[in-house]
Design goal:
It contains 18 helices and five strands. It is mainly alpha-helical and 438 residues long. The protein folds into three domains: 42 residues, no CATH class; 210 residues, Citrate Synthase, domain 1; 104 residues, Cytochrome p450-Terp, domain 2 (Orthogonal Bundle). The structure holds coenzyme A. The site of coenzyme A (COA) has 16 residues, from loops. Coenzyme A binds next to loops.
């Protein structure tokens, strides 16, 4: 009869251990009983970059990279992109179930009544240099919000927690738009609570002298769909940062600032910018075969940006939705000439053995930058556009962590590779005196 256990024999001692398996997983803490001597620390797992370590049990988002599946709370991303809204998805991620119509209405009302920020936030943002990167402004301002809501540190008080979750989801578009307007030297625009979440964001970005900004319906919906697609992606770098920072029980503003900092990095939130640079460098569909050849001959030196993914070894399901969305957006904005190069690049790469063998398919970033560019967003603003919806995913994961009795402050171990104990030399200079007498 098969048993749900793993038997390990330690060849150093000849001892055998039987570890329970749950959900195809062993607890690495169970390895600690494996020792050579009684006073040994016990065996650990070594897993740089957590390539094969589950840090939590989560019921929020499922990714099956081999099959190209992404689901929020069990609902396929393709269906959500077609039939849901970003705010409904945020509710779903946080509460686990779709809202009823009445629940959705009060959720939307609730978010809408928290879109304004304290007037002092304006002077805070105005303190940044005129050319400050909008993502640097965004993440600093989110962190600064913790000083406006000091009670947010009561993270175990569920009412306080939810109030600050709502504030964060509602205020990130306002802060994002302010970071954009500051970088452009434009006056800030107050939220228009008559508009949808995406429509209000477009208004805060675009409104100039007109008394009321009316967003284009296609662009408003396209942005909302992009927000749905980016809302959560399970334990990626920024979400793991959110959980790790949050595990110290810091307030959610500081934890979202930490997660935003992780997203800021080019390996995480910045790849769509790199795709645009690559497509511009290729310049014409006639140059695509030569470019693909150079990528293949570059043996990893030169990459096809927007292709390949650590988890997806199939077509990224978000990329499929974005490709369709791009056509709709370009009907309004005019065709982005780089789209033809992107389509040709995808066509050639997907027929090529090099990419087939390595399971390299377009990822979410392959087409998203083209849409953002066509909608008039500058490239250094793309990561901020990613952070707006990801805030709801970060917060859902943070709430799940706080309610998980197995979670503690995140504290990985290390394998120490430094010097063995050594003593400071008896006679030598006094470093502090040296510093003081300079
Ligand atoms: N273009 C060309 N070759 C690529 C490639 C790409 N975009 N991505 C991976 N490869 C190749 C690697 O050179 C490697 O080839 P080898 O086996 O001959 O050495 C093989 O495919 C496996 O790649 P590896 O780097 O081990 O995969 P990974 O899971 O560590 O990396 C990414 C995943 C996303 C970092 C990587 O695919 C990449 O850099 N893509 C481009 C950047 C990008 O679009 N990032 C956004 C991700 S959402």
């Amino acid at each position: 009869m098969s048993k749900n256990t793993l038997t390990i024999t330690d060849n150093r001692t000849g001892k055998t251990y039987e570890l329970p398996i749950t959900d195809d997983t062993i607890r690495t803490a169970d390895l600690r009983q494996i020792k050579v001597a009684d006073d040994d620390f016990g065996m650990m797992g070594y897993d740089p970059a957590f390539l094969n370590t589950a840090s939590c049990r989560s019921a929020i988002t499922l990714i099956d990279g081999d099959k190209g599946i992404l689901r929020y709370r069990g609902y396929p991303i393709e269906q959500l992109a077609e039939k849901s809204s970003y705010l409904e998805c945020a509710y779903l991620l946080l509460h686990g179930e779709l809202p009823t119509e009445a629940q959705l209405k009060s959720w939307v009302d609730l978010i809408t009544t928290h879109t304004f920020v304290h007037e002092n936030v304006k002077s805070f943002i105005q303190g940044f240099r005129y050319d400050a990167h909008p993502m640097g402004v965004f993440l600093s301002t989110i962190g600064a919000l913790s000083t406006f809501y000091p009670e947010a540190k009561k993270v175990h008080d569920k009412q306080v927690r939810m109030l600050n979750v709502v504030r964060l989801i509602a205020k990130v578009p306002t802060i994002a738009a302010m970071s954009y307007r500051h970088s452009m030297g434009f006056p800030f625009v107050y939220p228009d609570n008559e508009l949808s979440f995406a429509g209000n964001f477009l208004a805060m970005i675009r409104k100039m002298a007109e008394p009321r900004y009316k967003p284009n319906k296609v662009l408003e919906r396209a942005l909302d769909v992009l927000f749905i697609l980016h809302a959560d992606h399970e334990q990626n770098c920024s979400t793991s940062t959110m959980r790790a920072a949050g595990s110290s029980l810091v307030d959610p503003y500081s934890a979202v600032a930490a997660a935003s900092a992780a997203l800021y990095g080019p390996l995480h939130g910045g790849a769509n910018e790199a795709v645009l640079r690559m497509l511009t460098e290729i310049g014409s569909i006639h140059n695509v075969p030569t470019f693909v050849k150079e990528v293949k001959e570059g043996k990893g030196e030169k990459k096809l940006m927007g292709f390949g993914h650590r988890v997806y070894k199939n077509y990224d399901p978000r990329a499929k939705v974005i490709k369709r969305l791009a056509e709709e957006v370009f009907e309004v904005t005019g065709r982005n000439p780089l789209l033809d190069i992107a389509i040709e690049l995808e066509r050639i790469a997907l027929q090529d053995d090099y990419f087939i063998k390595r399971k390299l398919y377009p990822n979410v970033d392959f087409y998203s930058g083209l849409i953002y560019q066509a909608m008039g967003f500058p490239t250094d603003f793309f990561t901020v556009l990613f952070a707006i919806p990801r805030t709801s995913g970060w917060l859902a994961q943070w709430c799940e962590m706080l309610d998980d009795s197995e979670q503690k402050i995140a504290r990985p171990r290390q394998v120490y590779t430094g010097s063995a104990k050594r003593d400071l030399p008896e006679s030598r200079h006094n470093p502090f005196e040296l510093e003081r007498s300079r």
